[in-house]
């Protein structure tokens, strides 16, 4: 790990107030008092919605922190010998300190950011796979984990805090990686976590109904997404990289024009992708389109047209569903902007097997289909249910729930979608967190109409999955939605191990002869 003097780390901040040794040596950074790594640790006290880091300064000092970063104007009780730095915004300041501490590692890399309600995880994984196949291995940051070359870290957030991002990029550079691909959540943009990242390529997948507990309105949500594209011009061109920053945008989404305008304002090269070539909207420099699309349980095929390269080639993907055609197009377009030829990208896509928990097939030889998917918003649930009907000849049985302490407005909407699009639905628990699971289920089922025998409530998620699999007949499809890759379930006072795939496999072995 690096070591630097405090005054060097503070040089780029706006008027920090230092009480104590301004030349103290900093050996580690954290905003979590439990992760203080002994003498030389700098502890940043964040002011959050639920926790105030200033309350944990004493604990951080007891664990060995010798420098404290606090909000200007807040009273700080620190023992003699502890250096206190006061700034206006500790989150922003720690991010800037971390960039200096780790030597601006992302500035030495080519960074691709993918934002949107749906498709971020799959799109980032496809891009990373294409780059790997082209001999350009990439670090990966997103919902499933943080892949740094040497290590894979668990992912408490889709996009980490700014200081953690700098540490993750540092690990990537230590592993000799020159490429990084990351999911960029709207929370991360709004909270400034990515403000110090110089993105080379930004990708927009779509806008749907989600995170309105944080952004309040869809317009505010879209504005946060657009800020990623406005930021493409923040750092200007990089030495040795003659091409402009690139924006890859889903032209079929209603918010495409907003993202294109934001990209234009930043001076970016705008690439539009679409499955409806005749209705391309907005001002773009290049187009990537798919037509003659064929889909089935085993994946999709389509004819790819890439205007800039003049290529028109058949493409095969092992990913099922119309939404995955969009994800593939986004990844193919982004990869070209990163220097991979269309032919190389298409060949790599054909070998991509998918992402855990994203329309993941659970197959033990049974005569019906079982799918586990992360769909946890109205749009994503509608998309996976539509795909389920496309690939099965029988009934679609859906198991789903809604997370606690999250956007409540989507609960009846998801209930209505399940009631309309599934042949039979089971409302169950997702991650109820501090809320009562039965109360969440009532809000979901309020959108489902009168119970006509086509839906039920089973709060025990394992029992709900078991019931759905027990109901399935040859040719049917069971969709288990909401948790995807997660291997846990969060309740008010405890967390348990819970993996939808493993629970489904156990139910199949128990209930289906020969499975």
Protein described:
By secondary structure, the protein is of the alpha/beta class. Helices cover 32% and strands 22% of the residues. It contains 16 helices and 26 strands. It has an eleven-stranded mixed β-sheet with strand order 11-10-9-12-8-13-14-15-16-17-18, sandwiched between helices. β14, α9 and β15 (269-274) form a beta-alpha-beta unit. The protein starts with a strand and ends with a helix. The mean pLDDT is 93.
Relevant terms:
32% helix; alpha/beta; globular; eleven-stranded mixed sheet; 515 residues; six-stranded mixed sheet
Uncertain residue ranges:
none
Q: How are the strands of the largest sheet arranged?
A: 11-10-9-12-8-13-14-15-16-17-18
Mean pLDDT: 93
- Sum up the overall morphology in one term: globular
| Computed CA radius of gyration, to the nearest angstrom | 24 Å
Major sheet summary line = 11 strands, mixed
Helical coverage, percent range: 25-40%
Label the structural class. Answer: alpha/beta
Q: Using DSSP, what is the number of strands? A: 26
Number of helices: 16
User: How much beta, percentage-wise?
Assistant: 15-25%
Termini separation comes to: 50 Å
